[in-house]
Amino acid sequence: MWRQHRYKILLSLLLLAGGLLLAINAGDAKPQIELDALDILGEGTTLLVACGWLGLIISSRPAGRVTEWLYYGSLLLVFSYFLDLLDEFIRYPEHVRLMSWLESLPAPVGMLVLTYGLVGWHREQRAINRQLRGRELFLRDHQLIDPLTQLYGMDYLRAVLQREIELHKSQHKALSLLVLDIDNFAGFNRRFGMAAGDAYLSRVSELLSNQLRHSDVVCRYAGDRFIALLPNTALPQAQIMAQHLRQQLRQQLCAPDGAHDQPQLTVANIAVQQDSADSALQAADAALALAKQTAALNLQHV
Asked: Where are the transmembrane segments (predicted)?
């Protein structure tokens, strides 16, 4: 997760460095006799705890709106507590009120922003828990989960796709499919080994589950191919989702010996207009093949 948040880490360091320079220029160091060890310990501990929150968010959360709220709320708290700690070492002239404002204002604002982010996090967890409960109830009677990726398999995909086709057709709503294929995955397995290939598939499945909506159904379609069923989604919206997915997978996936050896991913999408699941899947395969041909032609002209 650190890789996708490197700009946030840089921003945090620059903000703290700016606060330190501003404090040094605005005041003078206190003599050692005026330092209060108890205050320094208390305020230093508070700062370390806030830094711990910030580190946990950066190291465990994927990029997204909720992560942004959690990050900026925590960063404001860290900045406020950092200036509060500096106040124990630096004395500011009475007419300089800027440092007092910078020390006091970010903390309540940061608490509000962080609280809003926690509400979003709570909503995310409720959606995930609903999906997990539904999956658990379904699995009590049906063994339809792929053991490696923990995604639904081909049998479940056909059943749900047929149901959604009939449902969306009767309600005159849009339905789309998004298909992802790992190019030359057999070569990747030969080079890095089956264990690395299995780990890569698990990472792809996890990222698909995180990046798509909780209402979407993500399935492992074949050994190196995944399909997402997108209910109530028209083709233009599906195309936007496919482009976002390409960017996120490109940023977050990396092969064992560097990004240069990362397998290429092909993503295609279609609007489902067929009357059966089999014909819709055939159309998805054709769209994927066309996307691969287009990508190959683009490479030849580069």
From this structure: 39-57, 69-86, 98-121
If asked whether residues 186 and 274 sit together in one domain, one would say yes
DSSP-based three-state secondary structure for 237: helix
Residues in the chain: 302
> What residues form DSSP beta bridges with 145?
152
Residue 83: partners with Cβ closer than 8 Å, 6 or more residues away: 19, 23, 99, 102, 103
Question: How many distinct structural domains can be found in the chain?
Answer: 2
Same domain, 297 and 158: yes
Residue 297 resides in a domain:
yes
Q: Report how far apart the first and last C-alpha atoms of the chain are (Å, whole number).
A: 32
Q: Where are the alpha helices (DSSP H) in 61-105?
A: 65-86, 98-104
Look up residue 299 and give its two tokens: 């490479």
Tokens 């996708």 map to which residue?
A: 4
Statement to judge: residues 105 and 46 lie in one domain: yes
Q: Mean pLDDT in runs of 10 for the chain (302 residues)?
A: 70 86 84 83 89 84 82 90 86 78 86 90 78 58 71 84 84 87 84 86 85 85 87 89 83 56 81 89 89 73 55
The answer to whether the CB of 145 falls within 8 A of the CB of 217 is: no
Among candidate residues 72, 106, 125, the one where a domain is terminated: 125
Closest CA to 217 of 232, 207, 227: 227
Closest CA to 287 of 272, 277, 302: 272
Question: CATH number of the domain that 283 lies in?
Answer: 3.30.70.270
Is the separation of the CB atoms in 98 and 65 below 8 Å?
A: no
Q: How far is CA 153 from CA 46, 95, 178, 199, in A?
A: 48, 69, 15, 18
290 with 229, same domain: the answer is yes
Q: Does residue 119 sit within a domain?
A: yes
176: β partners: 230, 271
